């Protein structure tokens, strides 16, 4: 890993215009990893101008789709070769276990391959326009788009946005999270190595409140695409509103895991653990509210608590570790405070609920995987996103109650329904005011499958054809195909406005 992560604008690495930088630390050990150039307003402006110049001269936008696709496929091959190196880097800077980072990164070439295929097969349309005209509707790229990403899946989320935006022919400015920008930075170099022309993908790391704000408010952007907290999403969407540009926002969540009484308890508990504690609970779709049919509640809770206590917390680089640290002190403080408040409000901590003791945890931001019971729907922990290894468990009585509890949230990102009854699974999922519903599974993602939340979880979606389309706009060509001469003011006959 280089000692300093620089900006990359118009094909060139550069420091911040004012020389500013900040440090990234290993959340498991506190060790200093590298410094990052903190992009200024001037840097953002330079990146947008570079992206605009690349867009205007058509070096990427006007390239035949098959050629663009070839380059994206080449990038997929390069990425597959670097998965181990990138997984290590991701684990070092965000603390997520190496076994999980490897599993995730191995799949990322699929995003480039999928959107390469979409670029080649995308078609316009030819709506009916009456006998004298032919209407051809083209899909054209937007221009320079701003991509703002979080730290919890640094490369996955960057990849989702980059592959759709590039396949559609746009120029990009990437503003990664200040907590984990190294691998997104490497991706930019990899894309140019694969053949994306300089100036098309620009990289401006920096702090959200300065670099992110400057990007969001830049008048030269044609779209903003953000993944982050709901409050960040509101600020960015408001700026997009002022610029009258579209916004895609993937925001917070508080996903319910709904367990009916016909399940195999061990299988459903394994599913709930997977939902709750992958990435140390730091995922937007974390199974934060485990809702269990009352007639199996006691048994389910007992097995869940036992298995939660058995999770191996520790060094993320050790392949035996199942749960790593939180990403930062702020994130651990927030997690601990949320559990303490739940205790004060009368909930019961059934497993975890502590900062672990021991030398191996002393310098990192660790918190034990935690299950909280006796939760009421007026407790803060019921509705607030913690973004840590904390889930609540509560009983329900029948389908109506399960649906009411699951929908009782400001968020509507994801849910899982666990049952062997297909009719019930379909019935319940149709009543959920939630964007992604897994049946007997959780967390699964595919480049072809839409990913987006309802309510306070966001606007629009990533993945799939809609994501590609959201990086284009329609241009309508209306061709006069009539041989009859036309003179609007030269006739006294009844006029026909078509
Ligand atoms: P965050 O909102 O703190 O930051 C996200 C990005 O926005 C970062 O790059 C940050 O620098 C930038 N930013 C912050 N303030 C900004 C501002 N005022 N203007 C412009 N940019 C700004 O989020 P985070 O802590 O990095 O990530 C965790 C959050 O992301 C959680 O709420 C989680 O649910 C959400 N998330 C959602 C999804 C999804 O698909 N819906 C996926 C992952 C994470």
Which descriptors would you attach to this protein?
single chain; 498 residues; alpha/beta; Aldehyde Dehydrogenase, Chain A, domain 1; Aldehyde Dehydrogenase, Chain A, domain 2; 2 domains; 7-stranded mixed β-sheet; 16 helices; 39% helix; 20% strand; globular; binds nicotinamide-adenine-dinucleotide; Ald_DH/histidinol_DH; Salicylaldehyde dehydrogenase; Ald_DH_N; EC 1.2.1.65
Task: Describe this entry's structure for a reader.
The chain has 498 residues and is an alpha/beta fold. The protein has two domains: 4-251 and 457-478, Aldehyde Dehydrogenase, Chain A, domain 1, CATH 3.40.605; 255-439, Aldehyde Dehydrogenase, Chain A, domain 2. The protein contains 16 helices and 22 strands. Strands 14-15-16-13-12-18-19 form a seven-stranded mixed beta sheet, sandwiched between helices. A six-stranded mixed beta sheet has the order 9-8-7-10-11-21, with helices on both faces. Strands 1-5-4 form a three-stranded mixed beta sheet, with no helix packed on it. Strand 12 (255-259), helix 10 and strand 13 (287-293) form a beta-alpha-beta unit. The radius of gyration is 25 Å and the shape is globular. The model has no long low-confidence stretch (mean pLDDT 97). Nicotinamide-adenine-dinucleotide binds next to helix 8 and helix 9.
CATH topology term of the largest domain: Aldehyde Dehydrogenase, Chain A, domain 1
Largest sheet: 7 strands, mixed
Query: Which superfamily, in CATH terms, is the homologous superfamily of the largest domain?
Result: Aldehyde Dehydrogenase, Chain A, domain 1
Counted up, domains total 2
Radius of gyration, in Å, reads 25 Å
How would you classify the helix and strand content by structural class? alpha/beta
Bound molecules: nicotinamide-adenine-dinucleotide
Number of DSSP-assigned strands? 22
For the largest sheet, list the strands in their spatial order.
14-15-16-13-12-18-19
Global morphology: globular
Strand residue percentage: 15-25%
Return residue spans where pLDDT drops below 50 for at least 5 consecutive residues. Answer: none
Q: Please name the CATH architecture of the largest domain.
A: 3-Layer(aba) Sandwich
Q: Please report the number of helical segments.
A: 16
Mean pLDDT: 97
Quote the distance from N terminus to C terminus: 64 Å
* CATH class annotation of the largest domain: Alpha Beta
Helical residue percent band: 25-40%
């Amino acid at each position: 890993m280089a000692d300093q992560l620089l900006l990359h604008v118009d094909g060139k690495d550069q420091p911040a215009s004012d020389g500013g930088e900040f440090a990234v630390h290993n959340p498991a050990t506190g060790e200093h990893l590298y410094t990052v150039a903190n992009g200024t307003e001037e840097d953002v402006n330079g990146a947008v101008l570079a992206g605009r110049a690349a867009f205007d001269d058509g070096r990427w936008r006007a390239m035949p789709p098959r050629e663009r696709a070839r380059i994206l496929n080449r990038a997929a091959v390069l990425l597959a070769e670097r998965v181990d190196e990138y997984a290590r880097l991701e684990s070092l800077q965000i603390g997520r276990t190496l076994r999980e980072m490897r599993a995730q990164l191995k799949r990322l070439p699929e995003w480039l391959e999928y959107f390469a295929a979409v670029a080649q097969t995308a078609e316009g349309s030819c709506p009916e326009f009456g006998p004298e005209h032919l209407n051809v509707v083209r899909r054209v790229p937007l221009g320079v788009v701003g991509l703002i990403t979080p730290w919890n899946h640094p490369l996955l989320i960057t990849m989702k946005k980059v592959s759709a935006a590039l396949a559609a022919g746009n120029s990009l400015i990437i503003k990664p999270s200040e907590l984990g920008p190294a691998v997104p930075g490497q991706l930019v170099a990899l894309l140019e190595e694969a053949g994306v022309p300089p100036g098309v993908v620009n990289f401006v790391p920096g702090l959200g409140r300065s670099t992110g704000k400057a990007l969001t408010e830049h008048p030269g952007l044609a779209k903003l695409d953000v993944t982050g907290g709901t409050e960040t999403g509101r600020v960015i969407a408001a700026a997009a509103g002022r610029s009258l540009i579209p916004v895609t926002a993937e925001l917070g969540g508080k996903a319910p895991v709904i367990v009916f009484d016909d399940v195999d308890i061990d299988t459903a508990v394994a599913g709930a653990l997977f939902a709750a504690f992958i990435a140390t609970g730091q995922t937007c779709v974390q199974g934060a509210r485990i809702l269990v049919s009352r007639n199996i509640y006691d048994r389910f809770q007992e097995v869940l608590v036992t298995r939660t206590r058995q999770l191996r917390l520790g060094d993320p680089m050790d392949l035996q570790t199942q749960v790593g640290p939180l990403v930062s002190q702020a994130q651990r403080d927030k997690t601990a405070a949320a559990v303490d408040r739940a205790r004060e409000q009368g909930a019961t901590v059934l497993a975890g609920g502590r900062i672990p003791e021991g030398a191996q945890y002393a310098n990192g931001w660790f918190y034990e995987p935690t299950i909280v019971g006796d939760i009421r729907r007026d407790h803060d922990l019921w509705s607030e996103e913690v973004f840590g290894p904390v889930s609540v468990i509560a009983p329900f009585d029948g389908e109506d109650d399960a649906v009411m509890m699951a929908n009782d949230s400001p968020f509507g990102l994801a849910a899982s329904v666990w049952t062997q009854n297909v009719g019930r699974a379909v019935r319940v999922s149709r009543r959920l005011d939630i964007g992604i519903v897994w049946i007997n599974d959780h967390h699964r993602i595919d480049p072809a499958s839409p990913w987006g939340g309802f309510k306070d979880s966001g606007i629009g979606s990533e993945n799939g054809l809609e994501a590609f389309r959201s990086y284009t706009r329609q241009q309508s060509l209306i061709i006069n195909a009539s041989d009859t001469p036309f003179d609007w003011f030269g006739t006294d006959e009844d006029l026909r406005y078509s």
